[in-house]
Design brief:
CATH architecture of the largest domain: 3-Layer(aba) Sandwich
Distance between the termini: 60 Å
Radius of gyration: 22 Å
Structural class: alpha/beta
CATH class of the largest domain: Alpha Beta
Number of strands: 7
CATH superfamily of the largest domain: Type I PLP-dependent aspartate aminotransferase-like (Major domain)
Shape: globular
Length: 302
């Protein structure tokens, strides 16, 4: 193969349109796009990502490995400073980074921007309907989970040990697979005590949940659901978690209502829950992924 032929071959792989390289897959994408536009889809875990999101997902960032985290210095910066590319690159060249791979100077900025923007979205200090006021700089954000289930698994691994007692809503009542279902690793690795809705009101019975918590002494209590139509009372859940003799971890899974929480039309668990997870591809209509939130203590900030 001559140099010219090799160049043409490489260009045909790198720059040709998908319809030329693989027309079958290209057609499948067109069929799927048409299906989504034509049909009413009432699956709560799906939404429509805007074209700008789809474009970002197909960018050159897809080519980069970036195991590890941005520098702590970057994660606490204001968005304006993160947007100063020259400033960020000078710091990177002098101090390197915390990652296991190099070539991630722009990934660091991207991830830090995502963290700052999410913390701003969930800050409650400027929302009138929140009793507890938490500013953006007091919220730690992890944006690396590829799905809500993966984020929930991380929470389990971080806060409790296999075999520990966990309380979550039963799957048939509206809970999620990762809240202790026998079909999921959560139900296989942990001792699950499931709570249910009241048979008369079909709502959560907080007095009954509290009795279960005091009786079984769970290490972690999960609130937030897949198919429960009422908003949880986060204050009552905090009281229940605190009523456990050694105080249970309160874990809020708001995957299905995160967008409404940001908008201020759904109660926020910020300030009540010890840890929060949500997905970015449901009510937020973002890319497929998830985030973990935790209110930072003074030692964490320092």
């Amino acid at each position: 193969m001559t140099d010219n032929e090799e160049k043409k071959y490489i260009e045909s792989i790198l720059y040709k349109d998908l319809s030329e390289i693989d027309p079958y897959i290209s057609n499948l994408i067109k069929f799927e796009k048409e299906r989504q536009q034509r049909k009413i889809i009432l699956i709560p875990s799906e939404s429509f990502a805007p074209s700008s999101v789809l474009k970002a997902l197909g960018s050159q960032f897809n080519n980069v490995y970036c195991e590890g985290y941005p520098s702590l210095w970057m994660t606490r910066q204001k968005e304006e400073l993160l947007n100063d590319i020259g400033h960020q690159l000078s710091y990177y060249r002098r101090y390197a980074d915390r990652r296991f791979y190099k070539g991630i100077e722009y990934i660091d900025i991207l991830e830090s921007l995502a963290q700052r923007r999410i913390s701003k979205c969930f800050a409650t200090d400027k929302k009138e309907n929140n009793e507890i006021k938490i500013s953006a700089d007091k919220i730690f954000v992890n944006v690396q989970s590829l799905s809500g289930s993966a984020a929930n698994n991380i929470v389990y691994e971080a806060f409790i040990e296999p075999g520990d007692i966990v309380m979550g809503m039963a799957l048939p009542e509206g809970g999620h697979l990762t809240h202790g279902s026998e079909f999921n690793r959560s139900g296989k690795r942990y001792n699950i005590i499931s709570y249910k809705v009241n048979r008369v009101t079909e709502k959560l019975d907080y007095d009954e949940i509290k009795k279960l918590a005091i009786k079984y002494k769970p290490k972690m209590i999960i609130a937030g659901y897949t198919s429960y139509p009422w908003a949880p009372d986060w204050k009552k859940f905090r009281e229940i978690a605190d009523a456990v003799p050694e105080k249970a971890i309160l874990f809020a899974d708001i995957a299905h209502c995160a967008g409404m929480t940001i908008a201020g039309v759904y109660p926020s668990p910020i300030g009540y829950a010890d840890v929060i997870t949500f997905t970015t591809h449901k009510t937020i209509c973002g890319p497929r992924g998830a985030a973990i939130l935790q209110q930072m203590k003074i030692k964490q900030i320092l």
